[in-house]
Amino acid sequence: MNRNASHWRAPRLSMRWWPVFQRNLLVWRKLAVPSLVGNIAEPLIWLVAFGYGMGALVGQVTVGGSPVPYILFLASGSICMSAMNAASFEALYSAFSRMHVQKTWDGIMNAPVSLDDVVMAEMLWAGFKALFTVTAIMLVMLALGISHSPKLLVAWPVLLATGITFSCIALIFNAMAKGYDFFTYYFTLFLTPMMFLSGVFFPRDQMPPVMQAVAAWLPLAAAVDLVRPMFLDRWPENPWRSVFVLASFAVISFWVALALTRRRFAR
To answer: Dihedral of the CA atoms 230, 233, 237, 242 (nearest 10)?
Structure first.
């Protein structure tokens, strides 16, 4: 019982996570171009197919009482979805490979680096990799003239926070996984429903009141509520609530992921 309790102790972190972060960055640099192309291809396909294709049928949607072109509505939601997906893939498939398949974590911990620092580095690396992805997508959106709002500079750190939040959540499943197939449950049962409930493809006020109440507390919905007004050259109406949702999911999920990872390595 004491051993189980020790898994849930407060994180013991030091700056030794930084060399682990650098190690992941150096490895990624060798595959940066195909990695970015793979990460941005799918969201851009969604944007072109639905934004221009369905957008021609839908025309405009109402956001905050004002009509907005559908492609702008979709772009502001899909970039949050891209941050979620990029961070999740890195914190699941890549982190699991380093932890379980390649035994990279074991090699790192032979140096004076704790497991807490390794998990911290993986979490931040997944968040920053998501930031690389959304930056590339944002540049394409700027080139297409979808939005030129200067407030997008503020959306940039929000998207980083979104990536970090979802990397924390994904690391929980990484700690429990016995194989890559386990991650299918995460994407099918958690991320996919969240995409349709969080206002990425259509306004949430069109859903039943009960579903609206549930969706309002989802981390992706919080990210969309923060980023979408900036695409429209506005400031979010109630930013602190959304910030609280993202921060709460990040802190709690990181603690749970760290505890489960400690338990896994203690076996």
So the answer is: 0
pTM: 0.92
How does pLDDT run across 88-111, given as a tens digit for each residue? 999 999 999 999 999 999 999 999
Distances (CA, A) of 3 to 93, 109, 116, 259: 29, 20, 16, 11
* Contact present, 72 and 231 (Cβ < 8 Å): yes
Residues 171, 116: contact at Cβ < 8 Å? Answer: no
Report d(CA 183, CA 93) in Å as an integer: 8
Query: How many other C-beta atoms can be found within 10 angstroms of the C-beta atom of residue 45?
Result: 10
